[in-house]
Amino acid sequence: MAKLLSYYRLCPLIDSKSLLGISHDSEKGFVIVTLGRNIVIKYRLSDQKQICSWRTRDKFSSQVLYDKRLEKYVGVFNISFLRIWSNDDENIDKIKKIKFTQQIHSILSHNEETYIFFKDGSLYSLREILENKKNFVPEKFLVDESVHNILYTSVGETLYFGYLIKRRDKYIFHWSKYTNNSKNNFNAMPIQRDRLDLKGYGLHVEKNLVIFLSVWSDGRIYAQHLKDKENYVNSSELFTVIEPISTTHLVKMIDIDENYIGVYGADPNEEGAILLIYNTQFKVNQSKQNHKLYTNDSKIWRIDENIFLPVGQNLVVVPFCLESEQLAALIGSHKPLPSKPDSDVIFVMDFEVGSWQDKIKLGNKLVRKKSLKFSEHKVQEYFKQGLPESLIIEQILPNVLEESNIKLLGESLDFFTDIPEKYLSLILNFILSRDEGEFSPKNKTLALQNLPEELLPLERVALLDKLLIRKYSDVLLLPYLRSDLHLEQAICLLKYITYMLSENGHNLPKLNAVKTEQQIINWASLIIDSNYQKFVLSRDSNIENILVECKNRVTSYLDIVEELKQISPALYRISEEIKGKNCNVGFNNSLYLVEQVSFY
Amino acid sequence: MVHCKIHNVGFYNPDPRAIYFMAIQRESNRLAIARSDASIEIWNLSNVPYIERTIPPDLENFSIEGLCWLDNRLFSIGLHGFLVEYDLYQLLVKDKWVVTGEAATCLDIFKQNLQIAVGTEQGYINIFRITDSGAEFEKFLDKQEGRIVCIKFNTTGEFLVTGSLNAVRIWNINSGHAIHKMQIGRSEANRDTIVWCLEVMADFTIFSGDSRGILTLWDGKVGAQVENYQPHKADITALCISESEDSVYCAGVDPLITNYEKVKVGQSFKWVKSIQRRIHEHDIRAMIYHKNKLYSAGIDSYLACSFHPPKTLVKYPPVMQNQCTEVASNARLILLRHSRHIEIWSLAETESAKPSYRGIVELKTKPKKLVTLQRVNKNWSGEDEGEGIFCSCISTNGQWILISTHSGFRLYTLEIVKEKPKITKIDDLDDCNVPCVQAAFNNKYNQLVVALLDGKIVIYDLEDSQPFISQTIQRKGLLDDTVTFLTVSECGKYLVAGDPNSNIVIWSHIQDGYSIVSKLPKYSVPLTAISVNSLLSTVVVVYADGKIIEYDIKNKCLSSRSRILDRYMPASWKSRTHHVRSITFDPRRPDVILLGDDGNLTVITNDKKSEGNDFEKTPAKVKKANVTNGIDSVVPKVQIVQKYKHLVHLDYLAGDELVVVEMNPLNILKKLPPAFAQKSFGTK
């Protein structure tokens, strides 16, 4: 699951071309924006406040970086010299210059260190240069050729660095691995397809392998593995075909994660730009965002979980979220593309290796023993076919619901561990909409006081409890809840949750009090989330009463939390005193202090 | 070197009492300050400002809404609807007169005509004429709708200027009619603008400050607005003009004090914004400009004195007049006086430490609050409320406690059994219906000495369970003002009393009572602290200008050290901004004098090193003095320890222990209401 969230403006840009770069600051949540050649501004992302800024007389020629090792900022000025300053320095013009005879192309940061790339085609770490400044002469790789662009990525401790050179309409990618004992050991890799233009490129790391991705004007993306000593001719293979982005214009790519890349390019309808997150594992577009304006050859950066891109006169931040990959959630929800058998194979392999193969067998036995109804529903057959649970649910649940087979539903809830969110919401709807008579009253042991009348009989409650203990992803469940759950049902459920929060509430099956509370609170926020609009607009006094009651419950919980907070220092003190530490310390300092001095 | 353990007591945190009004007696440099608990403090500003006398809160005169001086007579008005005159000798309400129109909200005085104008809630302006015996109601002016918020006479006494909701009015006192009504704008259509304060100049230029934060300049002759300025973002509640009338200061809820100066532009004059100072963090309620110094005060309960040049700011904390704390050294108790109650705490016992050890000493026991005592009476609305305290004291052995309030003084015995205090009131005490202004216990002879309001000093014998009056000392010709200092020496032999006029009298205890020993030479400057060193039989007095004298009781003359002390005091001593509040001695080194003022502990010792060799270097006069007295040739050495903030009291406890009571400014700040919130640059 990856999702681009709504974007916000970070700062205005005078000219998007003059934006040199955006980089990490010392702390997370802060970024350094190198603007308009001679201004550096530090922003806090949470409120887009400018924290501080520097302005210089000399022009920057590369983005400013924060060197975590030195705990200082590093900037390149006029292609020829460096300055290193700390956060407290106000005027950086006064900082000592570190001059070089060779021209500096840019600086980059890897593994908390800063590296300097010279226009001659060599890369050195700043530490190395500073340690041996007098004798430092960079190697020369390029003569009369200029670097088109640089690309780099880190795989663990290793830095993969490369630069593109354009030689007679042909691109050549020189790359090298940087480890402790190897550097500037360049391999040349031609980037070439007949009669097609290179529209974009990027490095992507997959399973500790670095792949050079190239986007071509026919909309295809090719991948080339960066491997030492290999004949690169025809080594590239088709990676994917990218459809939602026009490749008549330049395309920008950034590596996000092992399974995701970000792609920015022009809309195929020639209306604005598109930013998308592409899942390289399953070859699907996972999230897409439209922007009104496309800028040709605009730059794009990623810092933590934010993508930065200039849109018109503004620098825009697009936060995104990647949810941890749950294999179970992927099964069924992302059906493998039929045209790509490769990935399908991998997927099945994973499935069979999974340890729950045994569980199924176990489960089958259980089912056989417990309920014959499953066999009727061909569950076993499905299992034999090797279908995942989510698909089985998809097959059997509509029938169960149609027949309103409450008993079977209960058993299914007990049996299946992976029920897709869509069906969770359907089941919820089902449970809450049944008439009282449809439940077979048998269980008299559960005596629940003050239970809302709508929820009677107790069997309904028992079923509901089974549902409420399930694990789910709220992001996935939310839209289904919105569409499937009617307002009355939501109210009913909220009533039940409020009741569970009250002193009459009981523990959910198989969960202890704390976990029950956690689950109930999660559900409460989910329900309020999914029906927020309706709740807000409704003038029904009933809804209001329930919400007020729910609020009262929450407030009383908060009060308790507050009290616990107050108790905690006392407990701490007691524990300290038990340990035998001096109990007078607190009193000594603030209100009463005896000191021995001598004046005469 | 002798070591001492200093007990820094930080739990004396009386509630801050905001300053609401101030009035200056320019001839005698006396500043009357009304605080939120309706107590009045009279500060003497002649030298280092200090509280000369305090009129404690009174349950009947529960509100003060305005203060004014007429020569040495002090008047106030309040929401109770009375014009009140005070007896500054007895520290009581002398007389009061009903004001028509419910609560009185403001007053002003015109000294030449002996007239007081009082503005009221219902819009009546009452004119009183002051006679020798009191005040007489003279007339009303026309009634106006709504409350009169502020009132001022013009300099000729013909006109009155009043401020109220949305208008400033000018009244002709003779006819009683309003001759001009000047409307004031509003910041919002349905929100009244309140004129909080006014100042009138000799040329009948009127300044008004209002709730919009606008300072308006009016021409009183034609009743028209001349100009307005917006120096503040919130209400202007205090305004004052300099004596030369060329400078105006304003401040208020927005506590930035803004100064406007009169500048000559061509033929005419213009008022131009001058310096701004942020002196207080909370609302400023009163400002007075006196002798090139600006006194400002408000909700934060500090009195601030600021002037320029050199840019100086001195702040006087809301510490009550002297002897607000007292140490019962034998019982290891400390009495802390608050505005309406007293607290008694036990002091901590400390772990023993090596004499050479320097630093913080661990506590063996914690200090503990034992008793809170207050005298409750019915207030104006029939509810029980604690009476304001004139004075309180505790005997050295902690056995006796005295509290004096408006309804008299009460004596209690305190017993502490197994850390549980037991208080018993002594019932039949003669003459205890009159409040006493000062009191002290004589521990040696088990006596109580009280200075009553009317001037008598009465001695009670506490020997039996029934205390009785054993002696009454008449002080005619000795003391001519309220007794503000009364102390009994540790040895019980000497009784010393002082008054704000610097009269100091010493009595000594002989078989059948006290008899006068001597009256100290009178110094023109008032004294701020006095103490008896019983081991040397000397009295040490510190005056408001920093002068220290040591008087030898037996020889009836100043000690040799006293004569040369001035020379050895550091240069900065004379330019001190805070008065010496307490004096104490160390019995282990009788020659040591310890002085405490607001921020410093000053130690005066005899420098023994300078004996012999350095003798030649001492100034000629000193040598002479030494020789004539025949006392060992020592020169005083002064050491100043600057480490305290608001040192309230300094006392010797026992053995090697000293007690320092300190009031933490943060604790004052903590108890204040929130200040006017302002966004300052660079913060969030």
Question: Would you kindly provide a brief summary of this structure?
Answer:
Chain A is an alpha+beta fold and 600 residues long.
Fold topology:
The complex is a heterodimer of chains A (600) and B (684).
Chain A: E1 2-4, E2 8-12, E3 21-24, E4 30-35, E5 39-44, E6 49-55, E7 65-67, E8 72-77, E9 81-85, E10 98-99, E11 104-110, E12 113-118, E13 123-125, H1 126-131, E14 147-155, E15 158-167, E16 170-178, E17 187-191, E18 198-206, E19 209-216, E20 220-225, E21 237-241, E22 252-255, E23 260-266, E24 273-279, E25 284-291, E26 301-303, E27 306-311, E28 314-322, H2 327-330, H3 341-353, H4 356-370, H5 373-376, H6 379-385, H7 389-403, H8 406-415, H9 421-433, H10 458-468, H11 474-484, H12 487-501, H13 513-530, H14 532-537, H15 541-578, H16 585-590, E29 592-598
Antiparallel strand pairs in A: 1-28, 2-28, 3-4, 4-5, 5-6, 7-8, 8-9, 9-10, 11-12, 12-13, 14-15, 15-16, 16-17, 18-19, 19-20, 20-21, 22-23, 23-24, 24-25, 26-27, 27-28
Helix pairs in contact in A: 9-10, 9-11, 11-13, 12-13, 12-15
Chain B: E1 3-9, E2 19-25, E3 30-35, E4 40-44, E5 50-55, E6 66-70, E7 73-77, E8 82-87, E9 92-98, E10 104-110, E11 115-120, E12 125-130, E13 135-140, E14 148-153, E15 159-164, E16 167-172, E17 178-183, E18 195-200, E19 205-210, E20 215-219, E21 224-229, E22 236-241, E23 247-252, E24 256-265, E25 268-278, E26 284-290, E27 293-298, E28 303-307, E29 312-316, E30 325-328, E31 333-337, E32 342-346, E33 359-361, E34 368-373, E35 376-378, E36 384-386, E37 389-394, E38 400-405, E39 408-417, E40 420-426, E41 436-442, E42 447-452, E43 457-461, E44 468-473, E45 485-488, E46 494-498, E47 504-510, E48 513-519, E49 527-533, E50 538-543, E51 548-552, E52 557-558, H1 560-568, E53 582-586, E54 589-596, E55 600-607, H2 620-629, E56 635-642, E57 647-654, E58 657-662, H3 665-671
Helix pairs in contact in B: 1-2
